[in-house]
């Protein structure tokens, strides 16, 4: 059984049409899910958009069954592309975004956002080590950490390098257990 929590009505409809039971809610606040009722939580490219990470981790812990897993993937603030951006005096490429209306700083995808409002900006871009530490503070046991990609390298080299240096990959994926 799969459930989803989403605040966007259009995305809720898509999920429901795919057979997913959904709850309309803002995950920055209390979740409409029973305590100890979920086996696994996946948050793919979610945490960097939240205004209240503490709520996310405490609600995750509340609804997970004992031994339940949480899988989080997010952009890595310590990725070499971000380090390079800082070295040349720019905002990190992955954020935090300073404006919802304008791409501020050197943004590689800024032409895509030209004239568009960024509805869900990156507020909490963090390092892999910071994410691991947050999970630990909320009582989760980290089982696995992986790095994914290295901008601007082609996939073969990026995947190879991310196996050797997961803390500076473009993205991180952490699997933890309650």
Residue share in helix? 25-40%
Biggest beta sheet attributes: 4 strands, mixed
Low-confidence stretches: none
Q: Numbering strands along the chain, what is their spatial order in the largest sheet?
A: 3-4-6-5
CA radius of gyration = 17 Å
* Global structural class: alpha/beta
Strand content: 15-25%
What is the terminal-to-terminal distance?
Answer: 20 Å
| Mean pLDDT across residues | 91
Alpha plus pi helix count:
6
> Total strand count, please?
6
Shape by Cα distribution = globular
SSE order, as H and E?
EHEEHEHHHEHE
What tags apply to this protein structure?
single chain, 178 residues, alpha/beta, 6 helices
Descriptive overview:
This protein is an alpha/beta fold and 178 residues long. The chain is built from 6 helices and 6 strands; from the N terminus they run E-H-E-E-H-E-H-H-H-E-H-E. It has helices spanning 9-17, 53-63, 80-87, 110-113, 128-137, 155-164, and strands spanning 3-6, 21-24, 38-44, 64-75, 141-148, 171-177. A 4-stranded mixed beta sheet has the order 3-4-6-5. Strand 1, helix 1 (9-17) and strand 2 form a beta-alpha-beta unit.
Provide a short characterization of the protein structure.
This protein is α/β, with parallel strands linked by helices and 178 residues long. It has six helices and six strands, in the order βαββαβαααβαβ.
